[in-house]
Amino acid sequence: MSAYASAPDCASAWRRASSPTVYLLGMGMRRGEVLGARWSDVDLAAGTVTVRRTRVLVGDQVVTTTPKSARSRRTVPLTPEARRALAPTRERTLGSSNVVPIGDHRGADDRLVAIDAAGEPITPWGFRREVLALMATAGVPVIRVHDIRHSVATIMLEAGQPPHVVARILGHDPAVLMRTYPHVGDASAAGAVAALGQAIAGG
Question: I need a surface site. Which of 25, 39, 43, 183 has the fewest CB within 10 A?
Answer without folding.
Answer: 183
